[in-house]
Amino acid sequence: MSEVTPTEPRRLATEARDRVRFEEEALELSDQVYRVARRLVGTREEAEDLMQETYARAFRSWQSYTPGTNLRAWLLRILTNLNIDRGRRKQRAPEMQPLEEGDYFLYNKLEEASREPVSDQEAVVERLSQDDVVTALSEVPHDFRDVVVLVDIGDFTYQDAAQILDIPIGTVMSRLHRGRRILKSALAEQAVGGS
Amino acid sequence: MGFDDPCEKCEEWMQPYLDRELDDTERAEAEEHLAGCGYCRKRYRFEESLRTFVRDVCAEQMSPELKKKLAALRTPL
Questions:
Q1: What is the ipTM of this complex?
Q2: Quick count: other Cβ atoms within 10 Å of Cβ A29?
Q3: How many CB pairs under 8 A join A and B?
Q4: Chain B contact for A125, CB < 8 A?
Q5: For the segment A2-58, what is each residue's pLDDT rounded down to a tens digit?
Q6: B23 phi and psi, to 5 degrees?
Q7: Residues of B with Cβ-Cβ distance to A151 under 8 angstroms
Q8: Which residues of B touch A104 (CB under 8 A)?
Q9: Rounded distance, CA B11 to CA B71, Å?
Q10: Could you tell me the pTM of the whole model?
């Protein structure tokens, strides 16, 4: 007879159950992962490819995930690494043109462009269209966009974003700061023309 | 950070405040300033709704086909 001890089938059964649980949990998060993936790349096709590669890799290496830790962040770490590794993104050197506008720049611009006094600040946002936002976001250079997408769309903390992208938290903060300002400049451009 | 102008400081803190990344003391200071300053409060309301707006319009649904493809990647039992 074989050498399999009575505990071996039990171990295999436990492992199978853990794997099934992992796969179910990962799939339940796929909508949230996709939402971020879609804005990290330019097209829906690229996002779909990236999702499939990410899930294929995640299912292969599920044992390297530590149960109880942030699975969504773990999946996005795979996804952002794949996105960088595959050289899909032509790494543009971040343009370092001076960007002196403050944080209130976009509001001031939209208010200035309005013909009537602004009484409802929430309504000011409605002057922007979905296309304005999507186009403006796509104009933010990758390094900055990754951080903006993770924090603003993925709702990750600075610490999570730092772990996902494997960069120091200070770098997350500086890229976020700059990325949001680039985004706002682009939005102002879209919404009210040249700045 | 050495700001002479409290509105300038508030502007600098606006994003970390919205990100819930200020410490308790900083948050209390920012809230106190926002409560008393109409100029910054207006801009705070705008920034908050801009966040929500960006998140909402960027939320694109995954196609049912992709969902099926991902499920098909599972390890066969």
A1: 0.87
A2: 14
A3: 99
A4: yes
A5: 555 668 888 888 888 999 999 999 999 999 999 999 999 989 999 999 999 999 999
A6: -80, 175
A7: 19
A8: 11, 14, 43
A9: 46
A10: 0.86
